[in-house]
Amino acid sequence: MVRKRTSIHGEWSSRWAFILAATGSAVGLGNIWKFPYIAGENGGGAFVLVYLLCIAVIGVPIMMAEIMIGRRGRQSPVNTMYNLGIEAGSTPHWKWLGWLGVAAGFLILSYYSVIAGWALNYVLETASGTFTGLKAEAVSSIFGSFVSNPNALLFWHTLFMGMTMFIVARGVSNGLEKAVRFLMPSLFILLLIMVGYALNTGEFVRGLSFLFEPNFETLLYKHEAGGQIVLNTYGEKIFTLEYVLIAMGHAFFTLSLGMGAIMIYGSYLPKKVSIAKTTFMIAGADTLVALLAGMAIFPIVFANQLDPGAGPGLIFKTLPLAFGNMPFGTLFGTLFFILLVFAAWSSSISLIEPAVAWLVENKGMKRLKASAIMGVSCWLAGLLTVFSFNAWEKFYPLNFWIFKNKTFFDVLDYITANIMLPLGGLAIAIFSVWIMTRESSADELEMRQTDKSYNVWYFMTRYVTPLAVVYIFWNVI
Ligand code: TRP
Predict the structure, then answer these.
(1) Is the pLDDT of residue 104 over 90?
(2) Could you tell which of 33, 63, 350, 421 is best to mutate to test the pocket of ligand 1, judged by most ligand atoms within 8 Å of the CB?
(3) How far apart are CA 451 and CA 462, in angstroms?
(4) Residue 273: pLDDT band by 50, 70, 90 thresholds?
(5) pLDDT digits (tens, 9 = 90+) for 302-357
(6) pTM for this one?
(7) Which of 86, 221, 417, 460 is the most buried (most CB within 10 A)?
């Protein structure tokens, strides 16, 4: 039977190796860089609440589905979807879902690498004591002049893309396990230290209430970055579910869902591992890291009269301020940015792995060659993001509809996180319960069809998750 499939790319050495690698993929810039800044732009509490709901209602069922499909297919997402489509008596065209994921991963990595480059630069800056004793304004202007220099961004983007491709070329199950095993707990401890610092800023409670006290005004009505409600020409508030879409998109982004990253990691997963338990661990760890990052950052924002809606520069304007003014700040700061780079590193490889695995499987390429091709093309695409923060700062390539006033970077981020990933996730959910048989999904999830847990998953994935995604899409797009 088909259960005998194994992956030609290797297998994780244990359940823990998979959990670590998948957590490594999930925990990254999304948690520490993106979550705080989009929560800040969208008014905090209510947005965070919707994000948490999306993790539970949409993220967890889809993650289980994705791992399950991956382990069943044991190939790159394109070939897995092709084969499982045929196996289920449906069509091989399901492979297009794999392609959607390859495209999304490629586009995300192109900008992800640029931002990870910022973190690399901040390792150097913090280590050399640049921020020692500085005030908020000086720290912000250092960030401003850094991103306005395309050469600097280009240099770090190149370095980070090189680092990513180095690992991908060697095969992700080689070495990654060991690195993540030690890095994830260290990052966690440093975040706790940062929260400890935030406790003493005098604005900890305000930071917490910003993050956790829901204010549905800013969630449901059109507003500026930071939260001021925008009125139409009649002086009325403008209702929109766009911010709900952003919260949902981020749930996909932060869990690495909807593009086959978790699917391909699942394809290296040994049999007999409980997919449900591992999913809860991964989603739990990921959420915890994001919330800790928020709890560290917002008290610093309020204690220094910074703007929570500062956008993508938020963590680079706040955390160095703390490092510059706390005991052992240079040490902690350097360590922190090093760990952030590693977190981004272990995420970036999963973005391009589906594409590389496909080149190896279908084009018979060596991993080295496949990685080089993908690396160079993705590096080129990254130039769009590099220039979005300087030369093309005011250039809005698709200046209409939901893309109004968005730079290349903004457009890439919006299309991938808020459209491609939810679309991919929706298709994955539909495939796993409407196309695959109950026998195969239950078998692969290591559950019985009569188990309560199986039926909860089945019900969620069959009705609740797809309807939620479609409803939100429908209202915005
Ligand atoms: N989840 C990662 C983060 O939060 C980014 C990431 C890695 C990702 N692989 C992915 C996002 C696949 C979407 C899809 O930083």
Answers:
(1) yes
(2) 350
(3) 16
(4) confident
(5) 999 999 999 999 999 999 999 999 889 999 999 999 999 999 999 999 999 999 98
(6) 0.94
(7) 417
Nearest to 259 by CA among 449, 29, 78: 78
Structure-block tokens of residue 471: 């409803």
Both structure tokens of 416: 């991938």
Which ligand 1 atom lies nearest to the CA of residue 416? 13
Buried b (16+ CB within 10 A) or exposed e, 426-449: bbbbbbbbebbeeebbbbbbbbee
256 Cα–ligand 1 center, Å: 4
Q: Which of 35, 347, 348 to mutate to test the pocket of ligand 1 (most atoms within 8 A of CB)?
A: 347
Distances (CA, A) of 337 to 90, 97, 119, 232, 290: 47, 35, 6, 42, 16
Q: Looking at ligand 1, which atom is closest to the CA of residue 344?
A: 15
**Ligand 1 environment, Cβ below 6 A:** 25-26, 28-31, 105, 108, 253-254, 256, 259, 261, 347, 350-351, 421
Exposed / middle / buried, residue 220 (Cβ in 10 Å: 0-12, 13-18, 19+) = middle
Nearest CA to ligand 1 atom 6: 256
Q: What are phi and psi of 282, to 5 degrees?
A: -65, -50
Complete domains list, the chain, with CATH: 15-432 (1.20.1740)
Cβ contacts of 274-278, under 8 Å, gap ≥ 24 = 274/446, 275/64, 275/67, 275/68, 275/71, 275/444, 275/445, 275/446, 276/64, 276/445, 276/447, 276/453, 276/457, 278/15, 278/18, 278/19, 278/22, 278/67
The atom number, within ligand 1, closest to the CA of 259 reads: 14
pLDDT tens-digit series, residues 36-79 = 999 999 999 999 999 999 999 999 999 999 999 999 999 999 99
